[in-house]
Design goal:
Rna Polymerase Sigma Factor, Chain: A, 0% strand, 7 helices, single chain, 172 residues
Length: 172
């Protein structure tokens, strides 16, 4: 088992925090929440650094596994809050398009893609983001989500087919 030092961890934070924040932004559609979840993620990773074992996967795999669990907790928290506050319309969450779009058409396409990803069911959305946006290998996605590789392949195929259909509908 590898022991992560403070210097190692600081380096890993610099290398991975931006990707983690992008993952959270795509999962939640909320930039402020994505920033908060990124800080929470790295706090938890630091606190549990002694449990990291590179024989069981890479740091990235471990990080996305913890990130996925934070998202599940956030979804549960939102569900509970929405049930408790049914009189508040909480369904209108804005999706912030990624920075750097250089023209209106690209911004619109990115907005449509972000919305289509947000509309994917939870199991498909996580696989889609980890496999195609974060570009993790199938094995690492399976480890991060705690599901079999065959399930990752099936969900990835279904997510792509669903995304194609959603984008086709948006462009009609």
């Amino acid at each position: 088992m590898t022991r992560l030092t403070a210097d190692d961890f600081n380096r890993l934070y610099r290398e991975h925090a931006r990707c983690a924040q992008g993952f959270f932004l795509r999962m939640t559609g909320d930039a402020a929440l994505a920033e908060d979840l990124t800080q929470e993620l790295f706090t938890r990773l630091w606190e549990s650094r002694d449990s990291f074992d590179e024989r069981q996967g890479t740091f990235t795999t471990w990080m996305y596994g913890v990130a996925y669990n934070l998202c599940k907790n956030e979804y549960h928290r939102r569900e509970v809050a929405e049930r408790a506050l049914t009189h508040i319309d909480s369904g209108d969450r804005a999706v912030i398009p990624p920075a750097g779009a250089d023209n209106l058409e690209r911004r619109d396409t990115r907005r449509q893609l972000a919305e289509a990803v947000r509309q994917l069911p939870d199991g498909l959305r996580e696989v889609f983001l980890l496999r195609y946006v974060e570009e993790l290998p199938i094995r690492d996605v399976a480890l991060a989500l705690g599901i079999p590789e065959g399930t990752v392949k099936s969900r990835a195929y279904t997510a792509l087919a669903t995304m194609r259909e959603k984008m086709k509908q948006l462009n009609e």
